[in-house]
Amino acid sequence: MLNQAFPENERHASKPFELVHSDLKSFPVTSYGKFKYVITFYDDFTSHAWTMPLCSKAAVIMAAKDFLKMVHIQHNAHIIGWMSDAGGEYKSDLFDRALLEKGIKIYQSAPQTPMQNGHAERLGHTLMDKAKSMWHQACIPDSWWEFAFAHATHIYNRTPVAHLRWHTPHEMLKGEMPNIGHLCVFGCGAFVYLPATARANKMAPKSELMTYIGVAPGNEHNFLFMCSTNAAFTTAHAVFDECHFPHCPKNRCEPLENPFGRANPKPTTD
After folding, report:
1. CA–CA distances in Å: residue 181 to residues 44, 184, 247
2. Structure letter (DSSP) for residue 269
3. Are 245 and 189 in contact (CB under 8 A)?
4. Where are the alpha helices (DSSP H) in 157-269?
5. How many CA atoms lie within 13 A of 102 on its CB side?
6. 152, 174, 196: which is the final residue of a domain?
7. Angle made by CA atoms 250, 255, 234, in degrees to the nearest 5
8. pLDDT tens across 208-237, in order?
């Protein structure tokens, strides 16, 4: 007997955090930070997404507890319903107890039926497609996927969505237009100023060409870079060259044709 088409899910939230969808994605390559998984959280009403990298499936319970605490403290809200698949990481007495103690109603899809957890599944595919396109364009190592996935989530939350009448998830959740002036091309090169304490000696250059790998956690006005020594570096100022990808053999992109006949803008400086 063939699987039949699933009807559209009639369960829709009427306010933020009334229903949260969650899923766990695994990666074949251990990341820069020694992570193997990413857990995703998707708010049904605002379409806002959150992601956390994890070292093991056992960390799912702690990640869920951290997410519940974040919702309560930062948004003064409580999650009412929780939708996930019937995977082993979600199918445990310990996990159920963590949600039921908070009065959260648990919804789960049938085994081997990911279609019933469609929102979380589609979110995972969307973020993965964005992340893969960025890290392949920039020719970065596969182990840097955690940075590409985090940046894809950051961009997704600031991108207009059709079913939100072209509002962004950020706007739906926080009631304000998102700031996108800080966004740069992922994986591009940037000349970053090095403070005296970060230089090898007094004769060393005052700046270094680094690879832009996203927004620094906790402050979207700070940039995160990867140094030539394969160490993460955070700063608020850099001179970007968005047509230069330090890890690509042919690392300059072709300038786009300008229909107005004017020269293309120079790389941004912040």
Report:
1. 27, 8, 25
2. B
3. yes
4. 169-174
5. 21
6. 174
7. 65
8. 999 999 999 888 889 999 998 899 999 988
Does residue 1 lie within any of the structural domains?
A: no
Long-range contacts, stretch 158-166, CB < 8 angstroms, 24+ apart: 158/183, 161/47, 163/47, 164/46, 164/47
Q: State both tokens at 204.
A: 């060393």
Q: Rounded to the nearest 5°, which phi and psi values hold at 267?
A: -55, 145
Quickly tell me which residue has 């090169």 as its tokens.
189
Helix (H, G, I), strand (E, B) or coil at 54: strand
**168 and 188: one domain?**
no
Residue 29 vs residue 251, higher pLDDT:
29
**Domain count of the chain?**
2
Same domain, 135 and 247: no
The token pair at 160 is: 């207009």
Q: Which domain holds residue 238?
A: 181-270
Establish if 11 belongs to a structural domain: no
Q: Do 165 and 210 lie in a common domain? A: no
The per-residue pLDDT for range 148-163, each reduced to its tens digit, is 999 999 999 999 999 8
DSSP string of 132-164? HHHHHHTT--GGGHHHHHHHHHHHHTTS-BGGG
